[in-house]
Amino acid sequence: MPAEAPPLLAIDGLRVAIGGRSVVDGVSLSIRRGEVLALVGESGCGKSLTALSVLRLLPAAARVAGGAIAMEGTDLLALDEASLRDLRGNRVSVIFQEPVASLNPLVRVGDQVAESLRLHRGASAAEARTEAVAMLARVGIADPERRAAQFPFELSGGMCQRVMIASALICRPEILIADEPTTALDVTIQAQILDLLKTLRAEAGSAILLITHDMGVVADMADRVAVMYGGTVVESGPVDAIFDAPAHPYTRLLLATVPRLDGPRRQELKTIAGAVPDAAHWPQGCRFRTRCPLADERCAEAPPLEPAQGDAAHLAACWHSDRVGALA
Amino acid sequence: MTLLSVRDLAVHFPVRGGAAKGAVVKAVDGISLDLEAGRTLALVGESGCGKSTTGYAILGLERATRGTVAFEGRDVTHAAPAERRALAGAMQIVFQDPSAALDPKMRIDASIAEPLAIRGTPGAERRRRVAELLDLVGLPAGYAQRYPNELSGGQRQRVVIARALALSPKLLVCDEPVSALDVSIRSQILNLLVRLQDQLGLAYLFISHDLSVVRHIADRVAVMYLGTIVEQGDTDAVFAAPRHPYTEALLSAIPLPDPRAQRQRQKIILSGDLPSPLAAPAGCPFVSRCPIRIEDCARIRPVLRPADGGTEAACLVRAG
Question: Are B271 and A140 inside 8 Å of each other by CB?
Answer without folding.
Answer: yes
